[in-house]
Amino acid sequence: MRHRWLADALSGKVSLSRAFWVYGLGISIVYSLIGLLIDIQNPVEDTVYLLVGAALGVLQTIVLWRCADNSRSRVLGRLVRTVVVLGVIMVAVMAYMLLTNSELLLPAKNLWSGL
Question: Which DSSP letter does residue 99 get?
Fold first, then answer.
């Protein structure tokens, strides 16, 4: 049954605590540690790392949403779903800001050089 570890999580068949600690926080920590190995001067590595991160974020959002009902506490399940919705809204706002204000993508030293 090990081959179903991701399928079970994506279909909401695992507990909310497992979804949070393993599929949420655990995978995020591993992803961040891998990020320490990325050469930030290499645009290909940066792009691949960011695309993998975006895919992981989508998967984590789906897992947390679908597993929110698998909590002993209804309040905690609702809280998780509220945070997921707020997170999706924040991603949309940030994407809009970056697409409409491309200068936000410049390094900080360039943003402050005119002051």
Answer: H
Instruction: Report the alpha-carbon distance of residue 74 to residue 83 in Å, rounded.
Output: 14
Distance of CA 115 to the CA centre of its chain: 34
* 35 contact partners, CB below 8 Å, separation of at least 6: 49
Map out the domains of the chain as residue ranges.
Answer: 2-112
- β strands within the chain, DSSP E: none
Which tokens sit at 13?
């068949």
pTM recorded for the entire structure: 0.82
Per-residue pLDDT band for 55 (boundaries 50, 70, 90) equals very high
Contact 6, 12 (CB under 8 A): no
How open is the CA angle 93-95-98, to the nearest 5 degrees? 110
Quick check: 62 and 55 in contact, CB under 8 A? Answer: no
Distance CA 12, CA 92 (A): 24
**Lookup result for tokens 């897992």:** 63
Q: Please give the Cα distance from 67 to 16 (Å, whole number).
A: 5
